[in-house]
Amino acid sequence: MSGGKVLKIYCSPELRCVQTAAGIARAASDSHASICVEPALSDWVQLSPEGSSKNWLTTNQLTSMGYPVQEGYKPHLTQLPKNESPEDYLRRLSSFLTKISGSSESVVVVVANAHALEVARNRPWTTAEQLCQIKKAIRNCATCEVGVDSDNKVYAVEPLMLPFTKTLKDAQEKMMVK
User: Where is the signal peptide (predicted)?
Assistant: First the structure.
């Protein structure tokens, strides 16, 4: 990651994201990175079966399991709506990413789903069909490095981190293709 120590990792409360964030925190062992579990980064509520609720592990449970979760973190969003339009979901993600773009941290890592990646790349959607296409087009563990200029405009940065792939050779080949 371009310049600076990772001190803050925001992640979706889905366990797959917490596990990935914990791996990144461990890899950034020269820093004291902690994970801020953020419900605003969770999956679109309409992707869950009707009537089901999100049953995430609490920060206390995650901490007791050895995850470096920041227990005093106050989430941007504490409760998800029961129903959410594609536009509402876009606003939820945009609101959170806008909030952290003003962070005093020099390096912030966000671990979430493909939709958050599209919002960070400034590629909005308007329909459920577009949301489903994003999930098909972007693989799990895709990465995107962005910067934020003095006007809070987000721009893509050439990543210094190899993409997540099955082998090191695959990752190196992917970097050469870009």
Answer: none
Q: Where along the chain do its domains lie?
A: 8-177
Give the pTM: 0.78
Distance CA 101, CA 97 (A): 6
> What number is the average pLDDT over the span 163-173?
75
Q: Which residue has the tokens 């210094």?
A: 160
Neighbours of 146 (CB within 10 A): 17
Q: Is the dihedral of CA 31, 114, 103, 88 positive or negative?
A: negative
pLDDT in tens, 84-139: 898 999 999 989 988 887 777 667 788 888 888 788 777 777 878 886 777 666 66
Query: Which residues lie below 8 Å from residue 5, measured CB to CB, with a gap of 6+?
Result: 28, 30, 31, 33, 106, 107
Quickly tell me which residue has 């050779």 as its tokens. 169
The architecture of the domain spanning 8-177 is: 3-Layer(aba) Sandwich (3.40)
Structure-token pair, residue 51: 């009537």
The tokens of 130 are what? 């577009």
CA distance 113 to 140: 7
